[in-house]
C-alpha cells in the first residue's frame, strides 16, 4: 500500500474508535438521564406521601390504601434506579458492591471499601 492508502486506513480506524467512544458516552448519558428522571418521580411520590400523612392526621381520614400504593410505587421506582445504576456501572466497566454500594473495577475480587468478596 502507498502512503495515502495507509493514511486513509489509519484515519478510518481512528474515526471508528471515536464513533465507538461517542456511542458509549451517549449511552451512559441516557442512563444517567433516566436515573435522574426516576429520582425526580420518587421525590414527588415522597412529597405526596407526606401530604397524605398530614391530611390524614389533620382530618382523621384513613388514607392507608393510597399511602400503601405510593409506597409500592416508590419501591418499584427504586428498583428501576438500582437496575439502571448496575447498567451504568457495567457500561463503565465497574461493579457495584451489593454490601456497601461502592464502585469497584470490573475485575476486582474484593470490594475496595468493605472487603466483601465478589
Supply Rg: 23 Å
Number of DSSP helical runs: 2
Query: What percentage of amino acids are in beta strands?
Result: 5-15%
Please mark out the parts with pLDDT under 50 across 5 or more consecutive residues, or reply none: none
Order of helical and strand elements: HHEE
Helix content: over 70%
The global form is elongated
Q: What is the assembly state of the chains in this entry?
A: single chain
Describe this structure in words.
The protein has 118 residues and is mainly α. It has one domain. Helix content is 72%, strand content 5%. The chain contains two helices and two strands. A two-stranded antiparallel sheet has the order 1-2. The longest helix has 57 residues, at 3-59. It is elongated. It starts with a helix and ends in a 13-residue tail after the last strand. The mean pLDDT is 89.
Describe this protein with a few key phrases.
about 5% strand; mainly alpha; about 120 residues; 2 strands; elongated; 2 helices; two-stranded antiparallel ribbon; about 70% helix
Amino acid at each position: 500500500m502507498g502512503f495515502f492508502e495507509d493514511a486513509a486506513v489509519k484515519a478510518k480506524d481512528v474515526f471508528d474508535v471515536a464513533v465507538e467512544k461517542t456511542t458509549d458516552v451517549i449511552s451512559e448519558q441516557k442512563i444517567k438521564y433516566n436515573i435522574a428522571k426516576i429520582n425526580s418521580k420518587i421525590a414527588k411520590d415522597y412529597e405526596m406521601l407526606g401530604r397524605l400523612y398530614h391530611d390524614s392526621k389533620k382530618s382523621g381520614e384513613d388514607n392507608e390504601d393510597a399511602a400503601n400504593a405510593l409506597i409500592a410505587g416508590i419501591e418499584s421506582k427504586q428498583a428501576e434506579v438500582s437496575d439502571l445504576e448496575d447498567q451504568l456501572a457495567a457500561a463503565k466497566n465497574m461493579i457495584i458492591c451489593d454490601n456497601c454500594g461502592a464502585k469497584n473495577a470490573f475485575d476486582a475480587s474484593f470490594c475496595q471499601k468493605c472487603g466483601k468478596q465478589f
